[in-house]
Design goal:
heterodimer, A: mainly beta, 6-stranded mixed sheet, 5-stranded antiparallel sheet, 11 strands, about 55% strand, B: 7-stranded mixed sheet, 4-stranded antiparallel sheet, about 50% strand
């Protein structure tokens, strides 16, 4: 079955720096991969989707890459702000709009 | 639009009790899903539905029942609660082949 690995340790960075989060998967390459943001006590909120035939996707300060050879996606937040502090979840397509989620990486941006 | 709503926000049950977690969406989405989220683990799919009258099992369906009589509602029933079902439950909805799933605010369930 598909397994997804995200850094379980929190990522601490200084305000203004670029945060880079990693999502690795083990088996088949999914048709698409999504990134969500989750704040404490709230449901996940969709950020970006990248398809298997796309190398990179951008949205404002966010950038996602998808390397099907390495079986890896990288999620970047440039010019990070304390308001970007949250847990970021990677999710792979599992058919019928089903998603397989990673455990998430907590990001803390310090002033 | 209210989006995806879930009730209750918090619930405490005793082992063996039954209850229904409610989920409703007002976006006319065909797809709806139930996930549970446990510390240190990703969201795990319990049951999902691709339309009214159609449901199927996800990764962790045991101990849960669902039905989908309308497009808007997708209740999750715990038949006989067990401490292992202590978790945060999220409902989500989307269009078919959609770019994103919309999640509700979650229900925090504790089974004693």
């Amino acid at each position: 079955s598909q397994k997804i690995e995200q850094n379980s340790e929190a990522l601490n960075i200084q305000e203004g720096k670029t945060a880079t989060l990693t999502c690795n998967y083990t088996n088949y390459s999914p048709a698409y991969l999504q990134w969500y943001r989750q704040d404490p006590g709230r449901g996940p909120v969709f950020l970006l989707l990248i398809r298997e035939n796309e190398k990179e996707k951008r949205k404002e300060r966010l950038k996602v890459t998808f390397d099907t050879t390495l079986k890896q996606s990288l999620f970047h937040i440039t010019a990070s702000q304390p308001a970007d502090s949250a847990t970021y979840l990677c999710a792979l397509e599992g058919g019928y709009n089903k998603l397989i989620f990673g455990a998430g990486t907590r990001l803390a941006v310090h002033p | 639009n209210a989006g995806v709503t879930q009730t209750p926000k918090f619930q405490v049950l005793k082992t063996g009790q039954s209850m229904t977690l409610q989920c409703a969406q007002d976006m006319n989405h065909e797809y709806m899903s139930w996930y549970r989220q446990d510390p240190g683990m990703g969201l795990r799919l319990i049951h999902y539905s691709v339309g009214a009258g159609i449901t199927d099992q996800g990764e962790v369906p045991n101990g849960y029942n669902v039905s989908r009589s309308t497009t808007e509602d997708f209740p999750l029933r715990l038949l006989s609660a067990a401490p292992s079902q202590t978790s945060v439950y999220f409902c989500a909805s989307s269009y078919p082949e959609a770019d994103e799933q919309f999640f509700g605010p979650g229900t925090r369930l504790t089974v004693l």
